[in-house]
Amino acid sequence: MTDKPKGKAADAAAAWYARSHAPMMSAEERAALDAWIKDDAAADQAWAQVGKLDALLGEVANDPSISALRETAIKPARPPAARRWVIGGALAAALVAAVGLPLASTLITEAPSDAPAPRQSYAATNQAKSIPLADGSTMLLDARSAATVSIGPVRAVALDRGRALFTVAKDKAHPFVVTANGNSVTALGTQFSVEQAGDKTIVALLEGSVHVATHTGTRTLQPGQSLRADAATLSVAADAAKVAGWRDGRLDFSAVPLGNVVTALNRYGTTRIVIADPVLARQAYSGSFTTDGGGNALVAALVATGAARVKSRKNGTITLSR
């Protein structure tokens, strides 16, 4: 049950209806619409009213009196790209009787622009970068990560590489959708992280609720849960704080291949570690490091325990072998 007034749900349903019938509705927008209807009882009711209106419009579209009325009553008050429709009294009365005044009034007087929302690209180099978004949300983009943001009827973020943590401003009429590797994460107001790790997508929920749609299924996460998905598998665990530890400058590893540990630490700073021996790269490693200087700390730990030796140091690159 939502605490949002019914009138606002009707307004949002009207906007969604117009968008769903506009050209080039994206998969992200479709996923956001589905999640909005599913997660909000008032939204579900308003969307049902939209369906009734759609059916009514179909029934009256070819009525002779309506056809005659259409010639004089439908007048574009703006250029076609972002116009408002004003419908004459007879048809308006029929619509009000069918679906109720608030929704009918919204639908017959206004529809949003089909013009795409502006897109803005962001990237972080060797340290995390906090980015305020136009809707009041915040995106913490991790080092060596990039994302494209579009704030419009749907607040959409495409994670191009790496990972990001989102603190989402609450706005049930405009869901916040993050896509990565063809998977989508939809939130209404929450805090969560999304990571693109090769062909795997990792989601960690810290606050609120998110709906995740993957190639292999869908899940709604609860705070503290994380999700890992690739083209063939999907799993949920209770380790969100650990997965999102990078936001606090700490990375924790438990029986992770050493090559993966190195890849994670190479995001930060200017030192780059290379493992020349594939056998060494596959060895399981457990440990905890800070993002500031973690690479050098790993090298020191490996050398001190005899797990690896430094083969060379050159131009900021440390090469390790057994």
TrEMBL record:
Glycosyltransferase recorded as keyword: no
GO molecular function: sigma factor antagonist activity
Location of the FecR protein domain: 124-210
Keywords, sorted A to Z: Membrane, Transmembrane, Transmembrane helix
Pfam families registered for this protein in UniProt: DUF4880, FecR
InterPro entries: FecR, FecR_N, Ferrdict_sens_TM
Transmembrane segments: 85-104
Top-level division of the source organism's lineage: Bacteria
Domain FecR N-terminal: 11-51
UniProt xrefs under PANTHER family: PERIPLASMIC SIGNAL SENSOR AND SIGMA FACTOR ACTIVATOR FECR-RELATED, PROTEIN FECR
Name the record gives this protein: Fec operon regulator FecR
Organism: Sphingomonas dokdonensis
